[in-house]
Design brief:
heterodimer, A: mainly alpha, MetI-like fold, 13 helices, B: mainly alpha, globular
Chain lengths: ~270, ~290
Amino acid sequence: MRASRTGRTMRIVLLLLLAAYALFPLLWMVSVSLMAPGEASRFPPPLLPAEPGLGAYRTLFATTGIGRYFLNSLIVATLGTLLSLAFNTAAGYAFAKLRFKGRDRLFKLLLAALVIPAQVTMLPLFLMLKELGLINSFAGVLVPLVTSIFGIFLVRQYALSIPDELLEAARVDGASEGRIFVQIVLPVLIPILITLALFSFLAAWNDFMWPLIVLTDQDLYTLPVALAALSREHVQDNEMMMAGSVLTILPVLILFLGLQRYYLQGLLAGSVKG
Amino acid sequence: MRSRSLAGWVFAGPALIMLGLFFFVPVLLAFALSLTNFDLYSLADFGNTRFVGFANYAELVRTPLFWNALGNTFYFVIAGVPLSIGLSLGAAMLLNGGIGRLAGTFRTALFAPVVTTLVAVAVIWRYLLHTRYGMINYGLEAIGLDPVDWLGDPRSAMPAIILFAVWKNFGYNMVILLAGLQTIPTDLYEAARIDGANGWQRFVHVTLPALGPMLLLVGVLTIAGYFQLFAEPYVMTQGGPTESTVSVLYFMYDQGFKWWNLGFASAVAFALFLIMIVFTLVQYRIARARGMV
């Protein structure tokens, strides 16, 4: 019994070290963001602000237009989530429960296409959107975000568990396919729709390379694009840059903490079947 | 029956059209583009574009910076992936059993970096790694080591980026591997213990074989992810110092969207895609040869 108790203590000590590695950068970010200008550019670096204040946040909002970027990110992520829900839910349900010609072959093709990295499409997609006049617009940012093979897969796997008898009974009663979808299918799918919404929101909020390519007008920048540009300009303003990082990370971290169960469920659903 | 087939197309159609137009068509166009001399002049007038066969690929092979970028990317993948998966597995084993209710709290803490915004945490890490004011050099000094010019020295810039990437990513695979560990029956460990197997032997003969297929999946996904290195050097080093952190995608981005050599950049993208496919196939081959799948 003695040995297992030391084993348990060892485990906890090692986990505490790992947790320090994982959390220290995030906690220090918050701490530095509350420091006075220049306070963090000292050696040794201070752990806590001498007088915690929101000065860095005030400068950030007053001088960089971060409020605008925050709003842009919020618009892109919200629209991206809603569109992703609409497109992927309908398709996921169809691949699970509606029969149409070539369905299974098509689904296999989609799964095989998961190996293609999105970056391969970026150069031609840029030219296509240029022809369509969508460069430098939120629509351009959203185009690759609204459909996701993974999202379709996620919904399909969940929808497979809906009993066919339930749908057949509704059809016999004369319900239309649209009505079956709205009144029977959607309520059952709610847990996986929360997962899908969460994944879509995080993907849109955290997306960097594509918005960097597609947005040239500074007023349309999303937070990650703006933050990357600001960090090149304001190399010395550590407190302000940390405030910017807090503002960028906090919304997604809160969403994750609140909906963790749904997030992990989606993560595992994606990996078990692969 | 007929109406249900129609309904299938109506429900799946919009997503399939979007994927077709904005994913599958661009993939094909990317290959076509890589066979042209599409550049700044073509951007002004598509009529300036000519078919050049595989000239871009031939040019690519002769470009030293491409080989450099490929070497850097391999460095990142070959050092970063084992470190990342090793730490994920270690953390998952620590979380698996024996610590009760604390496990959930620790899991959340260790997973937190995964959901954060890459650009924002790269900004934090650039500061942590700062030569003069950085917390990491302060730590080194505290234990009697010399400070390192992390992001300013070509020898340490990539290791610093790897340290950051492992921090950002290990929680993801940890959750997957933890789920795998929880499916291994404890009887197996008991039986091994009775047979006199020590901790390491139990790990090699019980844990690893049971996790086999899952490790393969995690390996394939992680390698694919690590090959797509871009935002870390973009924010932390801008490819420097002396191009020691230029990755293949960084090179593609510069060629395509800074110099507007879209034909040449498409060849870069396709080369990376091919390399990733080869890596995936090799892993499946090895796994099959060892009877893992």
